[in-house]
Write a structure and sequence with these properties.
Layout: E1 25-26, E2 30-36, E3 42-52, E4 56-61, E5 70-75, E6 86-93, E7 100-106
Antiparallel strand pairs: 1-3, 2-3, 2-5, 3-4, 4-7, 5-6, 6-7
């Protein structure tokens, strides 16, 4: 009889409890982002959302910014959110060279 040892899942693969108020839905929407870069200079950059909810959004930016930055977002009219919402950057990941994954709370 053969026995097989089963090891627990690595910590990085365990399911995390969702902390967001609303689940984000994968949705690509063209958005123009305005704010201040990491040198305090104003910038404007066009990108696409990765996911979107009534309370948050994520997207990639080329422009380096800081966590807790305020951004003005100009969404196209076919999205869940229209107009020019303001967002507070909650998290930044730099997993792609030259790009930052921005996760922001809509205010």
């Amino acid at each position: 009889m053969n026995t097989v040892a089963i090891s627990p899942r690595p910590a990085h693969r365990r399911m995390r409890r969702e902390k967001r108020r609303d689940l984000r839905e994968p949705q690509k929407v063209t958005v123009t982002v305005n704010g201040l870069d990491d040198n305090g200079r104003s910038f404007e950059e066009q990108t696409e959302t990765i996911d979107l909810s009534e309370s948050g959004v994520s997207f990639y930016l080329d422009t380096p910014i800081f966590v807790r930055s305020f951004l003005s977002l100009n969404m196209n009219s076919n999205s869940l959110l229209t107009g020019k919402p303001v967002a507070l950057v909650a998290r930044i990941e730099t997993s792609r060279p030259g790009k930052q994954l921005i996760a922001a709370q809509l205010l």
